[in-house]
Amino acid sequence: MKKALLSFVMFFVVLAGFAANASAVDLTRRFGVGVDSTIANYLDDGRGVSAVFYINKFFGLQVIFGLSTLTATIKDPNQPKMDNSIKGSVVDYYSFETTITDWTVSLRGLIPIVLTKDVNLTGVVGFTACGRDSDGFASTDPKYMQFNDGYQFSIDLGVRPEYFFNDRFSIHTQVGIGISILTENDSAVVYGLSSSNEAFASTKASGAHMSFFKNVDLLGEAGFTFWF
């Protein structure tokens, strides 16, 4: 892990050696809003609304916030209401209210390392917290353990090319290393083999999940920003 991080830092240093174009896009004290996502997404897709503010030409702060909520009345097929006048007749099922909330909050530093007239190549360093509140749901069945209450922390180390259509609008993709920290809080389902070679699943696991450029696809977690 240390070697991977060192290699990534050296990559930034090499890119920083490029001189900035005299007509490069300067975002000093500019504020932008748009859509973005985190690089680490072991439990969560990391998508949300983005707010960016550049303190100077070479450093900006970004916040990503995402929230989804499900509220429903669910009928339990395992708890039928019987019609006592007719033996074995089911008239309805007992129901209950449930609310499931998924949330993501990410704070990231944006460091432009190559500046040109239309495209900036920016380094990304971020910290993310995400979680789920599902009314205390806590299943031991591997099929449903992913819906347990829980939370997770992760770290982003990446680069993103950003193309400016004009002074007000830009799009970007991103790729890099996502490090998800696993804790024993029922949020991460980890599979293993017992001493008797029987497969099992558990949420009581600690460690880390590292994703090296696994978010690479046609769009590369594309996002956009409108600048003020």
Explain what you see.
With 228 residues, the chain is mostly beta strands. The strands form two sheets. Strands 1-2-3-4-5-6-7-12 form an eight-stranded antiparallel β-barrel. The protein has a two-stranded antiparallel ribbon with strand order 9-10. The chain is 7% helix and 57% strand. The longest helix has 15 residues, at 2-16. It has one domain. The chain has one helix at residues 2-16; strands at residues 31-37, 47-56, 59-83, 89-115, 119-133, 150-164, 169-172, 175-182, 190-193, 199-202, 207-212, 223-227. The two termini are 39 Å apart. The chain is built from one helix and twelve strands. Residues 11-22 have low confidence and may be disordered.
Give a brief description.
The chain is mainly β.
List keywords for this structure.
228 residues, 7% helix, two-stranded antiparallel ribbon
Shape: elongated
Q: Report the biggest beta sheet as strand number plus sense, adding barrel if it closes.
A: 8 strands, antiparallel, barrel
User: What level of helicity do the residues show?
Assistant: under 10%
Low-confidence stretches: 11-22
Write the layout of secondary structure elements.
Blueprint: H1 2-16, E1 31-37, E2 47-56, E3 59-83, E4 89-115, E5 119-133, E6 150-164, E7 169-172, E8 175-182, E9 190-193, E10 199-202, E11 207-212, E12 223-227
Antiparallel strand pairs: 1-2, 1-12, 2-3, 3-4, 4-5, 5-6, 6-7, 6-8, 7-12, 8-11, 9-10
